[in-house]
Structures are given as structure tokens and as C-alpha cells.
Amino acid sequence: MKQQFISLFQQAFEALKAEGVIPNTVAVEIQLERARDAKHGDFACNLAMILAKPCRMKPRDLAEQLRAKLPASPLVEKVEIAGPGFINLYLTADAYQDVVNTVLTQADDYGRSQQGANTSVLVEFVSANPTGPLHVGHGRGAAYGSALADLLAAAGYNVSREYYVNDAGRQMDILATSVWLRYLELCGETFTFPSNGYKGDYIRDIAASLHTEQGEKFRKAATDVFANVPADAGQEGGDKELHIDGLIAQGKQLLGDDFRVVFNAGLKVILDDIRDDLADFGVTYQTWFSELSLYAPENNVVDRAIEKLNAAGHTYEQEGALWFRSTEFGDEKDRVLVRENGQKTYFASDVAYHLNKLERGFDRLINIWGADHHGYIARVKAAMMALGADAKRLDIQLVQFATLYRGTERMQMSTRSGEFVTLRELREEVGKDATRFFYTQRRSEQHLDFDLELAKSQSSDNPVYYVQ
Asked: Which of 218, 245, 254, 343 has the greatest CB tally within 10 Å of its CB?
């Protein structure tokens, strides 16, 4: 409807141009705003005030001429001039009632457009490490990413939704080791569980399933498992990071290829749970992209990305490590791609992943990250430019984690400690729609306190209940 009224003013503008009232050299974008006060009609246009100077006329006089040239419309009851030269439109009752017929006729297509002109967009969101169930901190990114993707699709973009599965690297090794240690407990081994292992009940459940399926196939003596492993935190000279890394190394050495069996057991259970949880939250994906696939021998994207940077002269070696010259592209410091021990960094995987996205031919890339990843923006955009792509094709939206309260009590959200409220528990208590509403009611980069009791209350204090 608004576009129809803008069209009326455009016709009046052209008519006065043809008569010489408005100079031919003048171009303007016509703005139409909702009137702030119902006394001033439904819509207000400031076109006369914008054109007054180039036309060398008083705004009200020009407004009168524009009003005289406005084509008649069955949706407009009357047109008045107000203040210094506003042109106010008063709509007929039919103008509003006709919208109801349009809504009913178009049904689910109402409000959709082709503004996106089928531009392909890859929206990557949530992408939480598959080391445990999704907690309420992940829910905000899920709600925001899903709503944004749906909005883009409604605006005519060709949208693909993607979850980047971080199934490579140290965190997954910690998960696999945690599952194996709980499995060893079920086999009768006794030891102190590492302070930096994953402690949630879900780890015990995965270990129990593994024990039921495999028996004691993966059993090793605790004395062998902990032999020569650095002390844990709380012990003399202990370090929790060195301790868990030592246990990972022992697990890989003692189990050999079977370490991957334990690894996959944990990954599958948790990833299946995440997939089901998000589907019940109204979030579905076209692609679940495995980080491990970037290292596949038949098409090692990580090696190709590094070779591409090497060939373009964007890398150098220092103290045995391979560095990316990211400062040449606006980053605050250069970044390591390959450590001195030959191990690829997480950043190398990020470069490869974005090379893969570019090679898949998407026109635009949208990453939705937690606010704690703010420092990664400059380096990833630098990598895009170094790979020969326009950094403007990548848009990164940051989402602050939500803080969950039950009244005045703050709830825990630590996957490592196992003390957290899952997204599933939140959804079952509050409801899917109310949960998504609360998550998206503020700008994504703003802090959000999620009050469980308020979200469930049936009073005007609850914005969901108020809107309903």
C-alpha cells in the first residue's frame, strides 16, 4: 500500500517537472512516513520541503501544487497540507479492509517479495562444538540464525542453512577421552577423573552404551593409562591442561585405531541429539558440514588453502612455524597456520572452510558467531581477501549469550562442568514459540537476561502474552 502512495507522489513530481515547476536536473527519492499523530492522517510526505530550495518556492506553495497533481485513488479519503509543508494522506476504511482480503488470498505468501532476486546466501549458525547437549546459551544463536534465514528466504533470497560440525581438534579429543575414562570406570578401573574432562551425566550415558555394545574390548589398566601423565590441577606441580593432553596421548597410543571408535561413539550420540533438539526448536539445516572433511586425503582443503596463500606470497616461516601475513589485510597481528610441531591450527581450518564456501559459489556468506569470537572477524576477513575474494561478501553477526534466571536465581551454563540447563529443558518448560520470541526480542549483540518465570507468566508484563 505504501508503495502505491509513493507512486502517486512520483506521478505528481513528474507532472510538475513536465510543466517546468521542478527543474529537470532535480532527482529525489520520495519518502513516506507514518504520521505520528492520527490527527495528521495516516501518512505524511515531506517532498515539498525537500524540493523547495531547488524550485525556489515556499514549501507550502509547492505542497499545494503537488497536491493538485496527485492522481485520485480509491484508497485516499483526503489530502491536507500541514505545518511548514507536510502533505498528509487520510486513508479510507476500505484501504485497511482490503489488506485483510489480500492476507487471506495470499496466505503464507503474504509479505514475501523478490527483493533478493534469488541471490544465493549461505547462513552458518549455532555450530556449537559437539561435546555436549545444547544449553540455553546456544539457543539465542539458533533462534536468531533461523529467523534471519527465514526472513531472507521470504525476501526472495536463495538461502542455504549450514551447521559447521567441529569434529576435529583438541576439544573432541577431550570428549573421547572423557567417554573412555567413564567406560573404564564401568569396567572396574579406579582413578581420579581429570578436572578438565567433560563431567556431565551424558558422558556416563555414552560410556554405558559403549560398554554394553563393546564389552571390555577397550579396557586398559588404570596404571597404564595414567603412567607418566603430568599431574592434574590441585596436585603438586599440577597443570590441568597438560594432564588432559597426557591422557589423550595415552588413549591414542593404548587404543590405536580403537580410539576413533570411542571418538565416533561420542560424536554420533551428541550430534544426533543436537540435530533432534534443533529440529524440535524449529531449526533445520540443508547441510551439516564436517570439519574433518576439510582434511580428507582425496581433497585436503586445508593443504590447498595453505598452498594458495603460499603461492600468493602471503605466508612466511618463523621459529619453525608457518605464519599468515594477516596484518597486510588489516588484522592487528599475523596468525599461525602451522605450528612448529607440524600441527595445523584452528585458524587454518577456518581459512579452508571459507575457501570451500567460496568454491561452492555462494554470492553472500553470513556467519553468526558468539560475541566471544569478535577477535576472529578481522583475521577471517583477511583470509578472504588473501584468497582473492571480496571481504564484503562475508557478513559476520555477533550474538551475545543469554543469561538465564529463575526469578532472581542465575542458572549455570557450563558444558565442561556438566552443570547447565539444556535448550530442550528450556523449550519444554517455556514452549518453543515463547522461547524463540524471548531470544529474538532484542538486537543480537545486546545482552539478554532470560527470565523463566516471566516467560511463562500470563500477564501483560510478559511480552509474549501481551502480543498474543
From this structure: 218
